[in-house]
Amino acid sequence: MQGSANLNLMIKAARKAGRSLVKDFREVENLQVSAKGPGDFVSKADREAERIIRDELMTARPTYGWVGEETGSADGADPTRRWIVDPLDGTTNFLHGLPHWAVSIALEHKGEIVAGVIFDAAKDELYWAEKGMGAWMNETRLRVSGRRSMIEAIFGTGIPFGGRSTLPASLQDLARLMPVCAGVRRWGAASLDLAYVASGRLDGYWERGLQPWDMAAGIVLVREAGGFVGPVREGRDMLESGSIIAGNGELYQPLCKILREAA
Q: Is the pTM of the predicted complex or chain greater than 0.85?
């Protein structure tokens, strides 16, 4: 594997956190039958994974800034670089014993995501990309799908829960898109949805109401795999607006047209 020192550092941190989470995940499966339930245990596993990642990254690059789901943000002495980290994307899946969750680490340089790692530890699938180096899953080069017809395409999304304000818009999206495509999948881990677009498993993906750590690593993966990414509302910054559309070269624009009519 040929990559920069920063990329190799990210991969090392993701694998280390992933190993810790896999051990905890086995325990969660046992806790499903307990009266107390696994909620408290999972939150501890999440925090421990972020501690592992932060220790690895900040020890090696103490001047970089930091944005983490569990520990918030901190400016670094180097204002041009920051880590963007989700130690456990797909927490609800993890909580329910579903083996679809990931560690996500991105590096931002001067406002651009230049490297990303998404580790699906339960399946031992390590997705990684660096600007100008292509996108990879383990040792396999990734390319977005080659499908050209919407009616043959499968898309991923997230469906809001718990009374979130983005639910009406998301239902409107589904009403517009589902009649003209082959299906929509809701896997529950935004980072892996983007990794699946990069690998051609999904032809496109969109979602509103995300956080930067949900999508940062996936942005560079999709781009380096030959795909396109952009905000749901044109002219907005994806990380700031919390919305994203991703797709292959043929279907990205048709997907944007459908979703932006509802935006």
A: yes
